[in-house]
Design a protein that fits this description.
The complex is a heterodimer of chains A (339) and B (321).
Chain A lengths: L14 E13 L2 E7 L1 H6 L5 E4 L12 E9 L5 E6 L4 H7 L6 E8 L11 E7 L6 H10 L3 E8 L8 H7 L2 E6 L6 E2 L2 H12 L3 E5 L2 H13 L4 E4 L15 E5 L5 E5 L6 E3 L58 H5 L7
Parallel strand pairs in A: 7-8, 7-11, 8-9, 9-10, 11-12
Antiparallel strand pairs in A: 1-2, 1-6, 2-5, 3-4, 3-6, 4-5, 12-15, 13-14
Helix pairs in contact in A: 5-6
Chain B lengths: L6 E3 L2 E3 L3 E3 L22 E2 L16 E4 L2 E4 L8 H14 L4 E5 L4 H12 L4 E7 L3 E2 L5 E2 L4 H14 L6 E4 L7 H10 L4 E4 L3 E4 L1 E2 L4 E2 L5 E5 L4 H14 L5 E4 L5 H10 L3 E4 L2 H4 L3 H15 L16 H7 L6
Parallel strand pairs in B: 3-18, 4-7, 7-8, 8-11, 11-12, 12-17, 17-18
Antiparallel strand pairs in B: 1-2, 5-6, 6-16, 9-10, 13-16, 14-15
Helix pairs in contact in B: 2-3, 3-4, 4-5, 5-6, 6-8
Classes of the chains: A alpha/beta (339), B alpha/beta (321).
């Protein structure tokens, strides 16, 4: 299996299955659900997600909930585990499922994390339960001879997901909490520079709140370290048809497009996401109000050297990000309603 | 019992009456991972405009009871990319393509019609007239009989004679029959109804509107009774005009209900977000429901609810029809 993105082939085709719930367990502030879903488990690659229908056949909640896959196991023909926080009636319903209940889930969806060809030092940064998809990635990376360091952060100790696994399996594991109840007091970005220095980090993978991803990307680019981020945009379908989960991303031709995080992500090269403009339509995005087609959109050569052994990230490769417009307001004040 | 599911879009025959609704299936490619898009009656593509369009800022969606609000803003690749990439892909899969077009001036609609006339393999055109008319203070075409007719007339004038033109009507009007009548008079071969209803939600945590676009289109099972009513009223007034019915269809029974009201085919929209294989499932359910009622042809139930029970018994003794 290669780690390149966007390769055609049966392996990337998702399945829609009626899965049987194996276990639902509380993990500190979160819930972890394991579902028997052989069709999904067999095709899974780290970074991909499932879109779960909630509320049963007559539900009044029409939109699927998307969750990163935490782990797949071969038992019962293939199981899938995902982690969620109860944040609204949909996730409340999910947390009330019991063993042998059935669940309609589609997956694995989205583009997985690209993997380096060579054994490099990888730093995996997770915020809250955003760390869930990082452990399967860590296994894959170690399989390729990479050294894996973890940096996990959350508001409090009960919201750090997978601290024990990280400490057991990582070469190093640094934890931060905002209230100081576990590890260092503060946020992951407070210690990121130090962790990068000590681990001689070659590549960063990050998943968590948008603010964290943005800060990690900014810091990583200061050190010229490539960063792959897994974004958590709210989705309605998860399959690419509804156009809800878009964010401004620079393409290989240097043109910014409102890009779907469900099919073109959820993993993006951090430096190609226009973080300052998330939640807006940048004036120079393809098709923005007043936008005019350019006679020839010239691909600008990347000023940044490619990371050691990092495969080009498919469609996103090449273009240098345009400077973000300083429009901090709208993105900063965004809230995601509990679902 | 095998049910004859063949249905018509004006003079074009389809193998069955289940279509996707515009904006809920892209151009079919994503859904083809879940089912064979050639199996359903047709794929109605997301409304395409002349130029690429970025759409509105996020958040673009809000879940509401048995429905959702969307404020996507017609994000799309523009007609050039659509004709180069999306339409040929659909045709290569053996699917039938009903192309939805949208514009902000009458001239844009006309130009889109001309572009589609040159393309091979367009089964029908659905004209999304629920767009603001920039030449008339942003008034929505679909809310004014004159503006709606102007668009349809311009499209009909430029499109190839053998491509049926369907006008997609908005339920947000005082008298939908009047709009329907003026579209038909302007040359529409059929009508699609209903588009979303304008709605809004406010986040009680942030105390602000949920959608970046403030208002959005309400869709899903919540609006099905409105769809049934609109289709009923228009079929009552214009019984010979074919109708593509849509609005909250989630099951085969919902599809049957819209057909009984007068829809000759049925589009599935928001249900696709909930269940990517909704279209083939609803088709199967519809076939079962027809068979269980002893109905041999899907076309026989179109507008059937308008007949009095007495007339139905006389027409076909011994049958529920």
């Amino acid at each position: 299996m290669t780690g390149g993105r966007g390769e055609p082939g049966a392996a990337l085709v998702p399945a829609q299955v009626k899965g049987t719930v194996l276990t639902v367990r509380r993990v500190d502030a979160y819930s972890a659900m394991t579902v028997i879903a052989p069709g999904v488990a067999a095709r899974f690659r780290p970074g991909q997600f499932v879109a779960v229908a909630v509320g049963g056949p007559q539900t009044s909640m029409l939109l699927r909930r998307a969750f990163s896959i935490h782990e797949v196991r071969p038992d019962h023909g293939g199981t899938v585990e995902f982690v969620f926080a109860v944040a609204g009636p949909g996730t409340q319903w999910l947390s009330e499922r019991r063993t042998r209940d059935t669940l309609d889930l589609a997956g694995p969806l989205g583009r997985p994390f690209p993997l380096p060809r060579d054994p490099v030092n990888a730093l995996l940064v997770g915020g809250g339960y955003g760390s869930a998809p990082l452990f399967a990635l860590a296994d894959k990376l170690r399989g390729r001879g990479c050294a894996v360091d973890f940096l996990l952060g959350a508001a409090s100790a009960d919201r750090v997901f997978g601290a024990l696994t990280a400490r057991r399996s990582g070469r190093t594991a640094v934890i931060t909490t905002e209230d100081g109840s576990m590890g260092a007091r503060g946020q992951v970005t407070d210690v990121l520079a130090q962790v990068i220095h000590e681990g001689r980090t070659d590549v960063i993978y990050a998943c968590g709140p948008m603010g964290m991803l943005r800060a990690v990307t900014t810091l990583a680019s200061r050190y010229d370290i490539p960063v792959q981020v897994l974004v958590e945009e709210s989705m309605a379908c998860g399959t690419g048809v509804c156009m809800t989960c878009v964010l401004p991303v620079v393409g290989e031709d240097g043109v910014t497009r409102m890009t779907r995080s469900c099919v073109d992500g959820p993993v993006f090269r951090g430096d190609l996401v226009r973080w300052d403009d998330v939640g807006t339509i940048p004036f120079d995005a393809l098709g923005a109000p007043g936008w005019k087609p350019r006679p020839q959109a010239k691909p600008r050569p990347s000023a940044r050297p490619q990371p050691p052994g990092m495969q080009p990230a498919g469609k996103q490769a090449g273009g240098k990000p345009q400077p973000g417009r300083a429009r901090a307001g709208p993105a900063a004040g965004r809230s995601r309603r509990g679902r | 019992m095998a049910v004859d599911l063949r249905s018509r879009l004006a003079h074009v025959e389809l193998p069955n009456p289940i279509l996707t609704a515009s904006g809920c299936a892209g151009a079919g490619r994503e859904l083809s991972q879940f089912f064979d898009v050639a199996r359903i009656g047709a794929v109605v593509t997301k409304s395409v405009m002349l130029a690429p369009r970025s759409g509105r800022p996020t958040p673009r969606m809000a879940e509401t009871p048995s429905g959702m609000l969307n404020s996507i803003g017609l994000q799309g690749p523009g007609i050039d990319a659509f004709l180069r990439r999306d339409l040929p892909w659909l045709l290569s899969r053996g699917a039938r393509a009903v192309v939805s077009i949208a514009g902000s001036t009458v001239g844009e609609y006309a130009e889109l019609a001309a572009r589609l006339s040159d393309a091979a393999g367009v089964t029908a055109v659905e004209v999304n007239i629920s767009c603001p008319n920039v030449e008339d203070r942003g008034q929505v075409f679909a809310c004014d009989p004159g503006a709606a007719a102007a668009v349809i007339e311009a499209v009909r004038a430029r499109i190839r004679y053998d491509i049926p033109v369907f006008a997609k009507l908005s339920p947000d009007v005082t008298d939908i029959v009047a709009i329907a009548g003026s579209c038909v008079a302007a040359g529409a071969d059929g009508l699609s109804m209903i588009n979303t209803l304008l709605g809004m939600a406010i986040d009680t945590t942030t105390l602000r509107p949920v959608l970046a676009g403030v208002t959005g289109g309400l869709s899903g099972p919540a609006i099905k009774p409105v769809a049934v009513r609109c289709i009923w009223q228009v079929h009552e007034a214009l019984p010979d005009i074919p109708i593509i019915g849509m609005g909250g269809v989630r099951t085969g029974l919902d599809a049957l209900e819209l057909m009984l009201a007068g829809a000759s085919t049925v589009s599935v929209g928001t249900a696709i977000f909930h269940d990517p294989s909704a279209c083939p499932r609803i088709l199967r359910e519809l076939e079962e429901e027809l068979a269980s009622r002893g109905i041999e042809r899907a076309a026989d139930v179109v507008g059937l609810a308008h007949e009095s029970h007495q007339a139905a018994i006389h027409r076909r003794p011994g049958s529920v029809l």
